[in-house]
Amino acid sequence: xYSINDFxxxxxxxxxxKYLIYTALTHSSFANESGKxxxxxxxxxxxxxxxxxxxxxxxxxxxxxxLPEGKLTRLRSSLVCEKTLKIFAxxxxxxxxxxxxxxxxxxxxxxxxxxxxxxxxxxxxxxxLDGGIEPTKEIVLRFITNELGEMYEIANDYKTEIQEVMxxxxxxxxxxxxxxxxxxxxxxxxxxxxxxxxxxxxxxxxAGSKKEAEQMAAKDALEHSIKRRNKSAIVQ
Length: 236
What we know:
Layout: H1 4-11, H2 18-24, H3 28-34, H4 42-63, H5 69-79, H6 82-91, H7 102-106, H8 113-131, H9 133-155, H10 158-169, E1 175-183, E2 190-197, E3 200-207, H11 210-227
Antiparallel strand pairs: 1-2, 2-3
Helix pairs in contact: 2-8, 4-5, 4-8, 4-9, 5-9, 6-8, 8-9, 10-11
């Protein structure tokens, strides 16, 4: 049987008010099934969502002081989405500490992404209420900083930026990505892709995957247009 003390060791924080962390780990199904007057994590989840968003926003705002608002928004969204929060919850082993009904347990509730993500937000809220912003920030940033590498690439979505430039121009132009070269053995491939706008090459990129090469081609097109001091040049 796992105890709250075990969870606190993994979390790296000891609660003064144990009821907060018990509540943060209690699913509504457990409260309903037990028939007891027992709070669940839904209210804490509400608060945790805001606290998590604030800590994440402040961190990336200061760390990436050149990123525009749109990219900051995409970066934050990728860091606090259900998929990412589920990963954070798994690292804390939240699943095995959850209080669930027998039915929710049998249906795989301990591994369900939505439950794990909600519980992580609830733990964030419980920590904030118990210890304030500093210990909460320390816990959140422990996870956020480990995820930033891949997420920063998501924020720099050059293909989306190209589409936005096209839309802003008010002109409907066809964008196409063509594979023009593929080299190397299967375990170490290199792909070169060109970006065509109305059949005219606007950019070219090379990378270890087709997806990344497309992003590099879009980035190349954007950089060339910036050098010409007019992003809309690629759609003229």
